[in-house]
Amino acid sequence: MLQVSVLKQKPDWVKERLAVKNFKQLELVDEIIALDDERKKLQSEFDALQSKINASSKDIGKLMAAKNINEANGLKASVAEWKASLEPIKQQSAEVEKKLNDTLVLLPNLPSESVPKGFSADDNLNIKEGGAKPELAADALPHWELAKKYKLIDFELGTKITGSGFPIYTGNGARLQRALIQYFLDYNGEAGYKEIIPPFMVNADSAFATGQLPDKEGQMYFVTEDQFYLIPTSEVPVTNMYRDVILKQDELPIKMTAYSPCFRREAGSYGKDVRGLNRLHQFEKVEIVQIVQAEKSYEVLDEMVAHVEGLLQSLQLPYRILRLCGGDMGFASALTYDFEVFSAAQKRWLEVSSVSNFESYQTNRLKCRYKNAEGKMQLAHTLNGSSLALPRILACILENNQTENSIKMPAPLKDYFKGEINQ
RNA sequence: GGUGAGGUGGGUGAGCGGCUCAAACCAGUAGUUUGCUAAACUGCCGUACGGGUUAAACUGUACCGAGGGUUCGAAUCCCUCCCUCACCGCCA
Question: ipTM, 2 decimals?
Answer without folding.
Answer: 0.87
